[in-house]
């Protein structure tokens, strides 16, 4: 069977969920060969093998953290050269897309970004994408070279598929471009203890209606009662009420959870672009005319300062 | 020596209009108004600020690859304050994908001459966010992308990138390719004077021949990807909407129970 290269997103050896979803999709096309880079790369092997990676190629070097993006492309290309895969799959993070883009140019291949599903037919992988703020669903193929495809989080279930995976060290020679952009300082993002926004099964978001940074405690309390991630509209972020890393929408994160709860958010097209593919959508807004209500499965026309705390209490009471 | 800045700007269909596919499964540009991609206004703004920091010893060229109407995007950028424009326009470009666009942009940037290329973070229609990385790869110069803060200090470009796991400070030597986010600072509105001045600013037109690109390498036929189908997403089935009469939160909780979320 053909091999499929899967780029691994991990934090010090802990594999992030979207990579496991990629393995599910990769197995539809061929045998997954994972590429894990940086500190802790080898520690990813056991989890990856449990989810079907027949081989894990690892490399660690200071270049991966000291310089932007290009060293990782050099490594992925080395893996590509050694494996000659049928396709290359990369998680659709901002960095993942840049890595995929450079690789595609180097190997002269077509690129598809932000796939939400993948199937295989006799001409290769077919990618489903959601475009124009989710107004359309398209199916696309790559017609030149080896398909390079980035896939969004929550596009496939995580499925155990244990194999006796092998771990091999990948030999990487860095090109001249690798050290072009130096990382001169790094401030890691502080953990909130809540699930990662793009990976969460439930997202609870607040917008301009929340009316102040201190009031976001109401949104956080609801999120915590559900074990959810917290999101925010750009209006709330621009007002300085919540960090930009939590922004949902076109210029923030794109989320596709099982449940999305929007409070005090009107539902502008740019916000919808980042959450419209959520399975179930719930909104609380005091304006019955707000466009968010066109999307909802269940909507409450009311004051979020009344409705949201009551909801949180009701959830807590039921969960005991 | 004067700093040469090239800003890549895209002409896109208005996101608040109804965007559709044409019969050949390319973007239907006839039925919807176009404009300068709002995210590229941030790139123009940063270019003008960097040029300003160089006491005028800098030249800002705006570059677009697109149909005839894309001139509107160039005019807008010129009226914001850019010095001149380059428009790559050719019937054979219809249907070009990201790989092809990056090829055309790279050739046009090289022909124009540059020390710094500035792009937006993503186009508002394709929303791929890959062109800046592709341009950097093709031009063989550093990529300093997704910056929420950018400055040029001598022959060094510096910036802050707010990544998923960390915020990093980046540095690279010119020439380089930069992209800026919508966190980089509000874009200025064109003044009346700017709009008048823009009418007299030079707009150079280039076609594929001028850039030594074969028609077969770009366009729909030359694309590296093909769209097999585009289906309008079925409208979401109308949901239940309830007026809060004091028990809205409890009703919502019951709904979540019925859907097994609790
Ligand atoms: C290029 C571009 C990119 C953009 N990217 C994004 C993006 O990534 N994400 C994003 O979110 N936006 C984005 N925007 C902005 C977007 O257009 C909207 O301006 C924004 O989403 C509005 O945020 P909001 O819904 O919180 O605010 P508003 O539109 O002001 O809506 C606030 C809502 O709260 C309701 N409300 C007020 N008080 C209460 C109360 N007490 N109880 C209940 N409801 C209440 C109001 O009825 C109103 O509907 C972008 C815009 C552009 C041009
Ligand atoms: N046709 C084009 N002409 C000029 N610049 C473009 C074009 N397409 C994309 N760009 C630039 O590349 C950036 C990223 O675009 P994309 O990768 O298509 O999302 C945009 O913000 C523009 O700066």
UniProtKB/TrEMBL annotation, chain A:
Keywords: Electron transport, FAD, Flavoprotein, Transport
InterPro entries from the UniProt entry: DHS-like_NAD/FAD-binding_dom, ETF_a/b_N, ETF_a/FixB, ETF_asu_C, ETF_asu_C_CS, Rossmann-like_a/b/a_fold
Pfam families: ETF, ETF_alpha
Domain Electron transfer flavoprotein alpha/beta-subunit N-terminal: 4-183
PROSITE patterns according to UniProt: ETF_ALPHA (PS00696)
Cofactor: FAD
Function: The electron transfer flavoprotein serves as a specific electron acceptor for other dehydrogenases. It transfers the electrons to the main respiratory chain via ETF-ubiquinone oxidoreductase (ETF dehydrogenase).
The protein's assembly and partners: Heterodimer of an alpha and a beta subunit.
Family: Belongs to the ETF alpha-subunit/FixB family.
Protein name: Electron transfer flavoprotein subunit alpha
Organism: Streptomyces camponoticapitis
